[in-house]
Amino acid sequence: MKKLLTTALATGILATAATVASAGEIAVIVKTTNSSFWQNVNKGATAAIEGHSDHTMTFNGPAAESAIADQVALVENAINRGVSGIVLAPSDPEALAPVVKRAYESGIPVAIIDSGLAEGNEKYYQTFLSTDNCAAGEQAAQMMIDSVGTSGKVAVMSYVAGVGSEIGRVGCFVKHIGESSDIEIVGPFYSQSQMATALNQTTDILAANKLVGIFGANEPTAIGMGRAIEQAGKAGQLTAIGFDGNADLQDMVKSGTLLSTAVQGSFQMGELGVNAIADLLAGNEITNFIDTGVVMVTKDNIDTPVAQNVLY
Hints:
Pfam families: Peripla_BP_4. This protein is α/β, with parallel strands linked by helices.
């Protein structure tokens, strides 16, 4: 149930921090800086900070989404240097929870974006901004069923097992397929968000199975999947649906390699995340969940404003 939170509602420590630290650095820490998706989050955060002249913004992340210890260290460093607030996309729901708790205990408000923390840690952050990943997974699954029918094999190319966004996105895709069809799921397979790994995995899966469809659940995975399909000469021979919306994936939609790609509001995650922290520091009310949305981009709608507003 969505409820209003204020700085005073969080704890006395946080309320005091909001008064004392009314200006200062807002640290935006994402899963990796080596991704167009996360660079688009940076663009949104940069746009937002221009409206808050009393704050500065820093943007950082590890070299890879799988470098979880490096991301923990970045949050530790932000706390140690006394930032005013943190916008965090946690790479691991368990590993990042203790350091978010430490931020809370240090009086530093945290906005979680994209992927949630493990259940039971909700009191340590003040708002969660994300695509409704379960709803997005269900949309992708229904589009798959509408395209391929209710039988055959569909492979699922995932990224990092157990990440909050992956649990909703892939879990609900698989569940919806199972409840709504007789399609056999092949996988999921985990690329660790490495494009080359996804390419190699998809190449092997295409060779070993007669697929009617395939789903690539995040940007590097979907790119690797799409390139494998093209290299195998199977573009247009099976229904491929990706996730996220960089230039490579847009080209694959236009060429017909992908039927569609589900695009999150990554710009909005950065923009609204920074605004949420600034609002908290100013003593304003924010909601505890902000839906940043998803658009199923196809060849038919890719040039429309609704798609262009989320592509990057």
